[in-house]
User: What shape does this take?
Amino acid sequence: MRRALALALVSVSLVACSAGVEGTWVGNLDCDQVPFDVELTLEHDSKLVYTGTGTQDRAFKDLEGNETTVAIEFDASLELESKGGAQDLLTTLTCTSEQTIRTLTGGADPEVVSEGCEPRRYDNYVVGWDGEDQLTISGPDGCSGKLTRR
Assistant: This one.
């Protein structure tokens, strides 16, 4: 009886460890040495496909001392090659919103200074998965980073 219970617990823990890439991932993406915070939430869509949404944000002071935020939202679709183990994922990332918001020194109301997705943003990005709790991201535009499952 104890052996059956132990085997059942081991089976459950192995299933929990191989949850694919479902969940919330957080980390940083550096684009030509400019850091962005990234959050990506994925849900299991079909057999080996996970879909979701993400944000890429950066807050900084511009040369005039104005608070500036770049906020990018995107849709994501990641497809595993197999159920588990380290692998590169078939990746489609699509920008859905991009804004640069500036708040002038002196406390003026924030203003949107640019809007609209940059053409071809996220084209040819590669996402790798270590088979557990880390995603690596790299793009031909000089962006690279790591996300960890929260």
The domain at 20-149 is CATH 2.40.128 (Lipocalin). The helical segments are 2-17. The CA atoms of residues 81 and 89 lie 7 Å apart.
